[in-house]
């Protein structure tokens, strides 16, 4: 399928959704428009709100705060997940000993941890970063662990027959084999890093996209809530696109 055709279909879906949303909130096609717009806002009003935020410049600081929190959570959580994932996959005894503890830690609801992190680290950025790390780490960890475990034993045997040491096997066999799993987890982790930052901001902060959404919700400004969510979605899509660009650079050898 050509990329231009795929892009046209994606844009068409967005246009159809926006048109239906506008009809529902502005006409009597789907019921009382006042009731619908009260609960779901109006796409034109949401667009005007976003435009006002960017033109006035009031949103840039909030975007920067959320970006910084999400970036720190993503980098620290991803690095931790990659390192521990490789370590556990290469050390079966370590993996067996810590397996129940890892699963128990992953089972903890993150929303419950948010107030604890706020108590430990205060209402600054680090409580949001800590929450984001807990979301990112386990996604990357389990994917890297599985990717390393599924390395072809034939390739490993051939590498050892050629005299490769553990470092060479790690560089030329394990790492390339796990990269697809790593980037698959990173694509998912980008969104979760932002979610961790925004949820933390929503529960207690003085800046960020979560703070904007919480403030709008506090005064029943549904338009502001939807505007904040749309900015958040666009923010995640841009970061995910950058991740795709990096992935294509590093995985040029992979068959399309």
Alpha carbon gyration radius: 22 Å
Q: Which percent range describes the beta-strand content?
A: under 5%
Q: Within the CATH hierarchy, at the fold level, what is the topology of the largest domain?
A: MetI-like fold
Number of helices: 11
**Overall average residue pLDDT:** 81
CATH level-1 class of the largest domain: Mainly Alpha
Number of domains: 2
Helix content: over 70%
Number of strands: 0
What sequence of helices (H) and strands (E) makes up the elements?
A: HHHHHHHHHHH
Largest sheet: none
Distance, first to last CA: 13 Å
The assigned CATH architecture of the largest domain is Orthogonal Bundle
Quaternary? single chain
Task: Find the CATH superfamily of the largest domain.
Answer: MetI-like
Name the structural class. Answer: mainly alpha
Low-confidence stretches: none
What characteristic shape results from the CA principal axes?
globular
